């Protein structure tokens, strides 16, 4: 059975190469991709605005193809990746999204009018999809986009697929973090969220705020939740379309940039040596300083940044237009019990970063915290460690939070 599966993978990969070659035109001994012919047989990831996958019989079959042509582990992108954008796609939007990755990694994206060899071709196809990892050492690689997918995070999502990042839900440990309700999803949903036991995670923790994570209603056929977070506080965090998370970028840097800096810094809070400036650590959100050992500064009118928790209940209230980062600390080997009595912000289907309230209560403070938006009452959070860090970001005078906390 194993031999047959390997033969099947080889056969499908050969079919893909034949198909890709059929889309190329040779002019003056250079390979120029012909995008007049759609890549109908290489679809992988299909998105709409809310990360709901558009399914059809063809899409499901092609998702299997995408899985079968998993990249050769010996094929890896160079640190300079050439790309081209075919009209009518807006080159500026795509460049902004790619620059968002480049600014934080050692990878540079260089726009060219045409590709002579390997690189990325963004074009308007029949969906929003990308192949997983580099699949050829000599041919251009397509990334298909539609107008409804031209959001920064979605462009980065598909680009990260091309760099080799799979969905966060494909991790082998996903069962500790999410439950997938297949009975609420379209028939082919399992092909997009199947876990890969060989997926390399570099020992990074599961990140609910990864741009590679679908939202709770992805591919729902009945309006019910398809992806349930085991920690309910993260239910409106999954499905980000704003930008790659700290963990997403760290994964790229570990895979492509680990040998850029000869000397590694001792960074705090799971920061790491910045490949674009080896004298500084690259810090998770909320943290700052050369070694990530400080909190980012709050704005004027915010509470004290470090609050000491005791066995007696204390109150914390913030209201209005401001950005506040607050750390609540209990004694060692104790925990913080935090109660959100009331919070009021603009509501979103998926809570956006830097809008509303984000609470980092897990032991690993480098992963995305639980995000709250809209109106919430009576939310209880107990930290596994002795600290909680929260970020209040109000954009209206009526935005507010009322919190109580104590040591347990």
From TrEMBL:
<dbReference type="InterPro" id="IPR000742">
    <property type="entry name" value="EGF"/>
</dbReference>
<protein>
    <recommendedName>
        <fullName>Zinc metalloproteinase</fullName>
    </recommendedName>
</protein>
<dbReference type="GO" id="GO:0004222">
    <property type="term" value="F:metalloendopeptidase activity"/>
</dbReference>
<dbReference type="InterPro" id="IPR035914">
    <property type="entry name" value="Sperma_CUB_dom_sf"/>
</dbReference>
<feature type="binding site">
    <location>
        <position position="161"/>
    </location>
    <ligand>
        <name>Zn(2+)</name>
    </ligand>
</feature>
<dbReference type="GO" id="GO:0018996">
    <property type="term" value="P:molting cycle, collagen and cuticulin-based cuticle"/>
</dbReference>
<dbReference type="InterPro" id="IPR034035">
    <property type="entry name" value="Astacin-like_dom"/>
</dbReference>
<keyword id="KW-0964">Secreted</keyword>
<feature type="binding site">
    <location>
        <position position="157"/>
    </location>
    <ligand>
        <name>Zn(2+)</name>
    </ligand>
</feature>
<keyword id="KW-0479">Metal-binding</keyword>
<dbReference type="InterPro" id="IPR024079">
    <property type="entry name" value="MetalloPept_cat_dom_sf"/>
</dbReference>
<keyword id="KW-0482">Metalloprotease</keyword>
<dbReference type="InterPro" id="IPR001506">
    <property type="entry name" value="Peptidase_M12A"/>
</dbReference>
<dbReference type="InterPro" id="IPR006026">
    <property type="entry name" value="Peptidase_Metallo"/>
</dbReference>
<keyword id="KW-0645">Protease</keyword>
<feature type="signal peptide">
    <location>
        <begin position="1"/>
        <end position="22"/>
    </location>
</feature>
<keyword id="KW-0862">Zinc</keyword>
<feature type="domain" description="Peptidase M12A">
    <location>
        <begin position="67"/>
        <end position="258"/>
    </location>
</feature>
<keyword id="KW-0245">EGF-like domain</keyword>
<keyword id="KW-0378">Hydrolase</keyword>
<keyword id="KW-0325">Glycoprotein</keyword>
<feature type="active site">
    <location>
        <position position="158"/>
    </location>
</feature>
<keyword id="KW-0732">Signal</keyword>
<dbReference type="GO" id="GO:0008270">
    <property type="term" value="F:zinc ion binding"/>
</dbReference>
<dbReference type="InterPro" id="IPR017050">
    <property type="entry name" value="Metallopeptidase_nem"/>
</dbReference>
<dbReference type="Pfam" id="PF01400">
    <property type="entry name" value="Astacin"/>
</dbReference>
<feature type="binding site">
    <location>
        <position position="167"/>
    </location>
    <ligand>
        <name>Zn(2+)</name>
    </ligand>
</feature>
<dbReference type="GO" id="GO:0005576">
    <property type="term" value="C:extracellular region"/>
</dbReference>
<keyword id="KW-1015">Disulfide bond</keyword>
<dbReference type="GO" id="GO:0006508">
    <property type="term" value="P:proteolysis"/>
</dbReference>
């Amino acid at each position: 059975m194993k031999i047959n599966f390997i033969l099947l993978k080889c056969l499908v990969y050969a079919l893909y190469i034949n198909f890709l070659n059929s889309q190329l035109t040779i002019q003056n001994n250079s390979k120029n991709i012909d995008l007049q012919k759609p890549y109908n047989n290489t679809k992988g990831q299909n998105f709409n605005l809310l990360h709901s996958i558009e399914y059809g019989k063809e899409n499901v079959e092609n998702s299997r193809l995408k899985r079968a042509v998993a990249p050769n582990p010996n094929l890896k992108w160079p640190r300079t990746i050439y790309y081209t954008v075919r009209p009518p796609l807006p080159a500026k939007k795509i460049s902004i999204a790619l620059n968002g990755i480049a600014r934080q990694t050692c990878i540079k994206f260089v726009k060219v009018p045409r590709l002579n060899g390997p690189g990325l071709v963004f074009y308007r196809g029949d969906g929003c999809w990308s192949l997983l990892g580099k699949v050829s050492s000599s041919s251009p690689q397509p990334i298909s986009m539609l107008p409804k997918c031209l959001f920064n995070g979605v462009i980065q999502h598909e680009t990260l697929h091309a760099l080799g990042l799979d969905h966060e839900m494909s991790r082998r440990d996903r069962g500790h973090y999410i439950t997938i309700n297949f009975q609420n999803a379209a028939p082919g949903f399992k092909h997009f969220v199947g876990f890969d036991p060989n997926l390399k995670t570099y020992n990074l923790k599961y990140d609910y705020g990864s741009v590679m994570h679908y939202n709770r209603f992805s591919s729902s056929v009945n309006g019910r939740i398809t992806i349930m977070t085991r920690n309910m506080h993260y239910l409106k965090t999954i499905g980000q379309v704003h930008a790659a998370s700290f963990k997403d970028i760290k994964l790229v840097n570990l895979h492509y940039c680990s040998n850029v800096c000869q000397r590694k810094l001792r960074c705090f809070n799971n920061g790491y040596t910045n490949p674009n400036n080896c004298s500084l650590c690259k810090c998770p959100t909320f943290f700052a300083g050369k070694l990530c050992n400080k909190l980012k500064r709050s704005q004027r009118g915010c509470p004290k940044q470090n609050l000491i928790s005791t066995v007696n209940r204390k109150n914390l209230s913030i209201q209005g237009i401001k950005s506040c980062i607050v750390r609540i600390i209990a004694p060692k080997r104790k925990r913080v019990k935090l109660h959100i009595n009331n919070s009021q912000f603009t509501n979103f289907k998926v809570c956006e970063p830097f809008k509303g309230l984000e609470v980092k209560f897990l032991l690993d403070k480098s992963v995305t915290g639980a995000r709250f938006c809209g109106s919430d009452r009576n939310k209880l959070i107990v930290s596994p460690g002795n600290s909680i860090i929260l970020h209040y970001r109000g954009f209206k005078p009526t935005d507010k939070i009322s919190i109580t906390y104590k040591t347990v």
